[in-house]
Amino acid sequence: MRKIIVTTTINPPTEAILRYDAMEDWELIVIGDRKTPTDYRLDRGRYVSPTEQDAYDPLLSEAIGWNCIQRRNMGIVMAYEMGADVVALIDDDNIPEPTWGKEVRVGSEIEVSVYETSLEAFDPVGATNHGELWHRGYPLELLAQRSYGYPVVRRVQVDIDAGFWNGDPDIDAICRLEHAPECDFDRSLFPLTGSVMAPFNSQNTMLARRVLPYYFLYPYIGRMDDIWAAYYVQAHGFQAVFSEPSVFQDRNEHDLIRDMKAEIIGYTNNLALIRDLTKDPESIVAYLPGPAIRAWDLYRKHFERA
After folding, report:
1. Fold of the domain built from segment(s) 3-305
2. Residues 217-264: pLDDT tens digits?
3. Which of 33, 70, 218, 228 has CA atoms 20 to 30 A from the CA of 205?
4. Cis peptide leading into 191, omega within 30 of 0?
5. 112 φ, ψ (degrees, to nearest 5)
6. Can you give the pTM of this predicted structure?
């Protein structure tokens, strides 16, 4: 099994990146940006400079844009064309626990706690010991209606393993402004999933190879890039499972008001998008600006050729 970690950074090698680079049974691809130091170096991994990205696919590189986390789309394509069976997406401020990556559940059938819900979306964070919080991208209209009860344990085929994160978790800006949390999730509650689609992010997530042609971090839609990617792949029938925290997020500095402004597109569209996706996955194009659609089309050409 070929396992490749993909991340992007504008920083010098962080503590997190150095730890991933030291993992001998994983390969690491770091996608650089125009703000990344020109002397960026890794011991084992592959650093892909902006110049190399432009040479690899100049049209896609230009269409994605610069100084944005969506640059990691270039790494996903590269990992696929290198023959990756599993691609792990991580953020450069997510420090791995010693057990990270030791067990790969993607592609396996495992026992999972499944929460049944009559709502259009499932919030995995609310099912934990931090039920006062919610996952970034969960429709705000559904928050007051969340109800969990007791899950049913079932065997589930895992296409996506969305690992949780201790420390400062991936919640939306409104939730972070209100609670300013420092989380320690109860590991005994995992793995879990819901009976309907759920938001998952790209900060500590493993994807099966067959998911990659459908998974694209949409640029030009603010902080919904990975959330809408998550909803889209689930609309195509891929199963996401949420696993116990395997990283500690030593969160990079954020302006929460700016984050909130970048999430408004989700606050106003997430529920409608989910309803449309359940009828037709390709309805997502109605929610995307033209430059995002162009980048997505160029991205998908790589998988058509493969």
Report:
1. Spore Coat Polysaccharide Biosynthesis Protein SpsA; Chain A (3.90.550)
2. 999 999 999 999 999 999 999 999 999 999 998 776 778 899 999 999
3. 33
4. yes
5. -135, 145
6. 0.96
